[in-house]
Amino acid sequence: MTQYPECVLARELEICYLGIALVTDFDAGLAGQKGIRPVTTEEVVRVFRDNNERVRRLIFEIIRRLPDVRVCGCHNSLKEAIISF
Prior knowledge:
The protein is mainly α. It has helices at residues 6-12, 41-65.
């Protein structure tokens, strides 16, 4: 999974954007290698569920730390943009 097109759309709207990724399938790209067994769907779902509370806490902590006034440049990201067709 990628952060595209979300990051591009956020930039076009001049809003801040943060991607949070959870690794649930530790064998991705390693199929067929010696000593690597495929991860089952049940294992992926278990890891995802185990991380739900941690991600929830992370999101609430991020919200708690958001500044009252934006100091980033996101709101000016299109100020000198070049539009091409």
